[in-house]
């Protein structure tokens, strides 16, 4: 049995941590986290966590290296203060797309980051919608991978769009898109896309399925520079769709994503708050951007881990 629950937030997404604290009915534990002038990261707890069950919420979203280093330093800090158990809550797992050797002489950085988190002091790892399922196996500590898909699906079902068709923007998104289509009881279409070896451009070749006169729902796990989603939206409009909506768990929105999304034909962009969306981006996209809250789900999972109740039962 572990001691009192202590919930900390890194600097990457404090609003999400506050939402989790609200759900749990507790105050966030405080720490001073900052960079020295030489860019070294420093962390100092404002109270002791000796014997406590500590959860640190810190997505490793851009700036990825800064946020990752902050997480590692935070983990080391609470471990050295004799926390009874430390859970790294990483709603978005940076470097998750580097999960295999897909060409010669390249790293598997997703595995490297898992090792770093473990060595830094994490006893458990908690995340949302990893880019690849095998990332769970990169860790030698218990992993809980949550999904924001039910939250997104509930919102979509409430909208009751007529003649809805789920569209996978590329082959890699087929399994996720198929699950959406099955839950919504609507058809599935797939865009066949081939990416240049440099990774700098994409070329769309074919649409498997029919979107004529339909509301097309593009499904992916994250929106990074938005090139894939915007190109896919334009393509399905050319194929006869009357409206295009995009949804993804993680709103990374790396430049020039905000400008691309603003200029796109997308009528809605549905994401969650696993990653903090900056205020100027929210203002730029206006009502087209829908940010769904995962704080309650994350709070319930943290509560269950703390008291030793099954997490999987939530999704059965």
Question: In a nutshell, what does this entry contain?
Answer:
The chain has 316 residues and is an alpha/beta fold. It contains nine helices and 14 strands.
Neighbour order of strands in the largest sheet: 10-9-8-11-12-13-14
Number of strands: 14
**What's the order of the H and E elements?**
EHEEEHEHEEHEHEEEHEHEHEH
Largest sheet: 7 strands, mixed
Average pLDDT for all residues: 95
CATH topology of the largest domain: Rossmann fold
When the domains are counted, the total is 2
| Uncertain runs | none
Keywords summarizing the entry:
316 residues; 2 domains; Rossmann fold; 7-stranded mixed β-sheet; 5-stranded parallel β-sheet; alpha/beta
Task: Describe this protein's structure.
With 316 residues, this protein is α/β, with parallel strands linked by helices. The chain has two domains: 5-146 and 295-315, Rossmann fold, CATH 3.40.50; 149-292, Rossmann fold, CATH 3.40.50. It is 32% helix and 26% strand. It has nine helices and 14 strands. The protein has helices spanning 14-24, 64-80, 109-120, 149-159, 174-184, 227-238, 257-263, 279-285, 295-307; strands spanning 5-9, 31-35, 41-45, 53-57, 85-90, 124-128, 143-146, 164-168, 188-195, 202-208, 215-223, 243-251, 268-272, 289-292. The longest helix is centred in the first third of the chain and has 17 residues, at 64-80. It is globular, with a radius of gyration of 20 Å.
């Amino acid at each position: 049995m572990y001691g009192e629950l202590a919930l900390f937030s890194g600097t990457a997404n404090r609003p999400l941590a506050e939402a989790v604290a609200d759900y749990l009915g507790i105050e966030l534990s405080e720490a001073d986290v900052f960079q020295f002038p030489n860019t070294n990261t420093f962390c100092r707890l404002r109270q002791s966590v000796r014997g406590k069950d500590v959860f640190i919420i810190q997505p490793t979203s851009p700036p990825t290296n800064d946020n990752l280093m902050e997480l590692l330093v935070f983990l080391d800090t609470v471990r050295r203060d004799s926390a009874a158990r430390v859970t790294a809550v990483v709603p978005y797992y940076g470097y998750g797309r580097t999960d295999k050797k897909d060409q010669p002489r390249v790293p598997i950085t997703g595995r490297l980051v898992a090792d770093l988190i473990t060595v830094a002091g994490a006893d458990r790892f908690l995340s949302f919608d990893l880019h690849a399922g095998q990332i769970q196996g990169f860790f030698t500590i218990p992993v809980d991978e949550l999904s924001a898909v039910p939250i997104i699906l509930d919102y979509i079902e409430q909208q009751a769009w007529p003649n809805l068709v789920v569209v996978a923007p590329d082959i890699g998104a087929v399994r996720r898109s198929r699950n959406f289509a099955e839950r919504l009881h609507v058809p599935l279409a797939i865009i066949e896309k081939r990416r240049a070896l440099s990774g700098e451009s994409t070329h769309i070749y074919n649409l498997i399925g029919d979107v004529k006169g339909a509301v097309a729902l593009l499904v992916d796990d994250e929106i990074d520079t938005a090139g894939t989603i915007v190109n896919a939206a334009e393509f399905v409009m050319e194929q006869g769709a009357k409206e295009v909506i995009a949804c993804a768990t993680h709103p990374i929105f790396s430049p020039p994503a905000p400008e691309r999304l603003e200029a796109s034909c997308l009528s809605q962009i549905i994401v969650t708050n696993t990653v903090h969306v900056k205020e100027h981006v929210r203002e730029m996209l206006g009502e087209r951007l829908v940010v769904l809250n995962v704080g309650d789900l994350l709070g319930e999972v943290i509560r269950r881990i703390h008291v030793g109740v099954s997490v999987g039962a939530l999704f059965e």
